[in-house]
Design goal:
35 strands, 615 residues, 4-stranded antiparallel β-sheet, 10 helices
Length: 615
């Protein structure tokens, strides 16, 4: 379930590439010397920096040509409040030694988040620019220059308690500052002449800016921003930072949301914009990259191919090929010869395409007339099949027509899998997403129900053998499915699911900026009755089917108390259920042992409730 190799990155001069590689359930930093063809060409470092963070590895960075940065995450406490912490561990490319940066000692309280790199400072390879609270008090976020050898910090731009982030222009100057206070969020742009911070945008704390910043244009005067069109889809415009006047439209795609931009880490130029219809893709402004993308697609026509990264001189490129039947294969492209060589497969036990199943885009009409997009993965065979409906987490995220390890795992067990992108999902325009605001357990849940009924009507799902399974918000939706439509399902599986919405809002209030997404859920006081009625914990008496609850005991996003309280109430009312606690498990199932345990419990439970074929 966890990729064997991931985050493959070329060094700035292209002499090495690094990647995260998993062995015996533990992460290793692997660094390959491209000029060496001996047995010594690869060096491994087990990233067991501390037992509590051994597998909480987020990503890696080449910070300069001799230094790799590894971002790790772990759980901690601050003022008796459980927190998620991040640190940056830097390692020399010869695996000779490593250190934490920025430097700290026992007398200095460390900042909670120490992974936010603002800029790689390509003109100054001994340093990087980071956003850090230098005193660890949560009172100021500064833009600081960090020495990669010593870990010493120098404040370049002092911040304040409300500061949430920074951005640089193409010359590497800190020009953007994002703030969030009790009621508003604000965006400031620093004027080059006066050096004053001028307010550029303001919005309610829980609303999006009308013009959302992406990057500076080359002249440093214009800013590229996202702006929604009349249909609620993001488009990219230029805007003058002094006058605020909207300029040229840089890019807009018909009824397709743009997701973000890609910036060259060496030149800071905007290379292209990402978007997704059925799978993520890139629209390149850079002509050279656009040409390379075409060449790759011609060479690998059966997969979706992305340029993951390249060296400073663009002589070497790392390519990732994926698809519903291709979990992911990394390639190295040499531009001069156009030679494409295989680096390796993302999964250690290679899954051949014939072992996997096609993923079909489908859609159906909800009861109020809204069209709901979805994806269907089917095992071999014809006629109605046992089915799992798999609502995604978030809920402001979405599923794609790509390799999904859970969906493929279930299909290999003889189960059809429906993944509905119900209203409130991202990627289909702001209007579609806003339709889900305040609709937890209501129309969002009806969309899932209507998808199941559509599959029954189309002869895809066996109406007597359907289960609803989900993680996080999907776990909540699974429980609400058992509550609202107890006769539709044979069982429900809630992984790390919210069971009490008001409790979730109360928990989030402990964290800075924790309630910024409250409008999408509801108001703790004003919506008291609605939140109570749409919380599974208050509707256990309506449940008729067996329930499987799975939860990590170190989950900070949705604390395990949600599932424990649900299990206690199910037990009190004599409802069939099973509670599985994942030891040292966080919300993202970072530990390999937790992922394996979850799949085994899921397989056993579904086999018992639905039956199904052998793998």
């Amino acid at each position: 379930m966890r990729p064997h190799i991931d985050h493959v990155l070329l060094s700035p001069t292209g002499t090495h590439y690094a990647g995260l590689q998993w062995a015996k359930g533990k992460p290793h930093l692997a660094i390959y010397d491209l000029a060496d063809d001996s047995d010594e060409r690869v060096k491994f470092l087990e990233l067991e920096v501390d037992k509590s963070i051994v597998e909480r590895v987020r990503t890696i960075h080449w910070l300069n040509d001799q230094t790799v940065g590894v971002v790790v995450e772990f759980e901690s406490y601050r003022q008796a409040v459980p927190t998620r912490e991040t640190r940056l561990f830097v390692i020399k490319s010869d695996i000779s030694h490593g250190r934490w940066i920025p430097e700290s000692d026992e007398t200095t309280r460390t900042s909670q988040f120490q992974h936010r790199i603002i800029d790689y400072l390509p003109e100054d390879p001994d340093h990087i620019l980071m956003a850090i609270d230098p005193f660890g008090r949560g009172t100021a976020l500064n833009a600081v220059r960090v020495n990669l050898d010593t870990g010493r910090v120098r404040t370049m731009v002092p911040g304040g308690e409300a500061v949430a982030g920074y951005g640089v222009d193409q010359q590497g100057r800190v020009r953007l500052r994002h703030e969030i206070n009790d009621k508003k969020k604000l965006l400031f742009v620093r004027d080059l002449e006066s050096r004053r911070w001028n307010r550029f945008q303001m919005a309610e704390r829980n609303e999006a800016f009308e013009l959302r910043p992406l990057a500076f244009a080359e002249d440093g005067q214009a800013l590229l921003v996202f702006k929604q069109n009349s249909l609620g889809f993001d488009e990219i415009f230029e805007v003058d930072t002094k006058s605020g006047k909207l300029g040229n439209k840089v890019l807009g795609l018909p009824q397709i949301d743009l997701l973000g931009i890609e910036v060259d880490r060496y030149t800071r130029k905007v290379l292209g914009a990402s978007y997704a219809e059925h799978h993520p893709a890139m629209h390149y402004f850079d002509e050279q990259l656009a040409e390379i993308q075409l060449l790759i697609d011609e060479a690998l026509p059966e997969t979706q191919n992305s340029i993951e990264n390249f060296d400073r001189d663009r002589k070497l490129f790392v390519i990732l090929a994926t698809g519903p039947r291709v979990p992911g294969t990394y390639y190295l492209l040499k531009k001069e010869s156009l030679q494409l060589s295989r680096i390796g497969d993302r999964y250690e036990s290679r899954l051949e395409p014939e072992q996997l199943h096609d993923v079909e885009p489908v859609s159906y009409v909800a009861r109020d007339g809204l069209t709901i997009p979805a994806y269907l993965t089917r095992p071999e065979g014809s006629g109605p099949q046992p089915m799992v409906v798999l609502p995604h987490g978030g809920p402001t995220s979405r599923d794609y027509q790509g390799f999904d390890p859970i969906a493929q795992f279930l299909a290999s067990r003889g189960l059809a899998v429906l993944q509905p992108n119900f209203r409130g999902s991202s990627g289909y325009g702001a209007a579609f997403q806003r339709l889900g605001y305040g609709e937890w357990g209501l129309t969002m849940q009806d969309d899932v129900t209507d998808g199941v009924k559509a599959m029954i009507e189309r002869g895809i799902a066996d109406p007597e053998r359907i289960c609803i399974v989900g993680w996080s918000y999907g776990g909540y939706a699974a429980l609400m499915g058992a509550v609202k439509t107890p006769d539709l399902y044979r069982c429900a599986v809630s992984g790390a699911g919210v069971t009490d919405i008001r409790r979730m809002l109360s928990e989030n209030a402990h964290y800075k900026f924790g309630l910024k997404n409250r409008p999408s859920v509801g108001d703790y006081r004003k919506d008291r009755d609605k939140l109570r009625d749409t919380s599974p914990i208050n509707n256990v008496d309506a449940i008729k089917v067996p329930i499987l609850l799975v939860h990590g005991d170190k989950d900070l996003s949705v604390p395990i108390g949600h599932s424990k309280k649900m299990a206690a109430k199910l037990k009190k009312l004599g409802k069939p259920h099973r509670m599985v606690v994942l030891k040292d498990g966080n919300h993202n199932l970072s530990l390999e042992q937790n992922r394996v345990q979850f799949l085994r419990e899921l397989e056993s439970f579904l086999a018992e409730q639905l039956g199904g074929g052998e793998p």
